Amino acid sequence: MRLLVTRPEPDNERTAATLRAAGHDVVLAPLLHIEMVSDADLGAAPFAGVLITSANSARALASHPRRTECLGLPVLVVGRSSAEAARSAGFTDVTSADGDAADLARLAAARFAGAASPLLYLAGEDRSGELDLPGLSLRVVVAYRAAKAKAFPRPVLEALQRGALEGVLHFSRRSVESYLDCSRGFFNAALRPVHYCLSARAAEPLRATGAARIHVAERPDEASLLTLVTPKP
Predict the structure, then answer these.
(1) I need a labelling partner for 232 at 20 to 30 A (CA). Which of 66, 138, 174, 216 fits?
(2) CATH topology match: 2-31+149-229 vs 34-146
(3) How many C-beta atoms surround the C-beta of residue 172 within 10 A?
(4) At the top level of CATH, which class does the domain 34-146 belong to?
(5) What is the Cα 208 distance to its own chain's centre?
(6) Whole-angstrom Cα distance, residue 211 to residue 18?
(7) How far apart are CA 146 and CA 148, in angstroms?
(8) Cα–Cα dist 232/126, whole Å
(9) What does the longest C-alpha to C-alpha distance in the chain come to?
(10) DSSP-derived secondary structure for 62-130
(11) pLDDT tens, position by position, for the chain (233 residues)?
């Protein structure tokens, strides 16, 4: 298949490499540009642990002035990609919820029950919701921002308009919104490919706009999404 990957850099290259190895033709159009907030105010220590829902949060911490004091803390992450990024940033005690934000909240509630110190939640500026952690104190710090692209790269625009793309991979609701914003004026052509979405929430704007062919990953992680495109034998 000829596929469009809308994921931001640098993760889009890894996704593309996996798809190409499976025999697909892949083009890239990062529809979100990640801006790190490397000097974010973390607040007063101590913290019981760190919560991360995106690999971008871990990358932002890598250049933060207070990085060293955080690395000794236990860190809970939402999935495999964020776990890899956390380890690359220098964390050694990393536990993955292998799911979504709700799974991470349940894991944190069990792991830190009764903690006297707050949890440090390194978050994105635009979030679908907050972590629900009754009984625990949470310090929410914006570690990165995701700016929407203003337009498709011209080769991608032309490929969509002439129907040369068979499928599109979407990794977040915000990137789907950016895809639709960039498609104004040729919605029918942009909705024609098969849309592979990381989650039901990510797929909602496509359904509302009238996309007919939408597939949602069984679990909100890259491996499950790629299985939709290249099923395991």
Answers:
(1) 174
(2) yes
(3) 24
(4) alpha beta
(5) 21
(6) 26
(7) 6
(8) 34
(9) 59
(10) TT-TTHHHHHTS-EEESSHHHHHHHHHHT--SEEE-SS-HHHHHHHHHHHTTT-SSPEEEEEESS-S--
(11) 999 999 999 889 999 999 999 999 999 999 999 998 878 999 998 999 999 988 898 988 888 889 898 999 999 999 888 999 999 999 999 999 988 888 999 999 999 999 999 999 999 888 766 788 888 999 999 999 989 999 999 999 999 999 999 999 999 999 999 999 999 989 999 999 999 999 999 999 999 999 999 999 998 889 899 999 987 66
- State the amino acid at position 136 in one-letter form: L
Q: Does domain 2-31+149-229 have CATH number 3.40.50.740?
A: no
Label residue 136 left, alpha or beta by phi (over 0 means left) and psi (-120 to 50 means alpha): beta
Q: Name the residue type at position 218.
A: E
Residue 134, both tokens:
């009754």
Domain limits, the chain: 2-31+149-229, 34-146
CA distances from 223 to 23, 43, 183, 229 (A): 16, 35, 27, 10
Contacts of 184 (CB under 8 A, 6+ apart): none
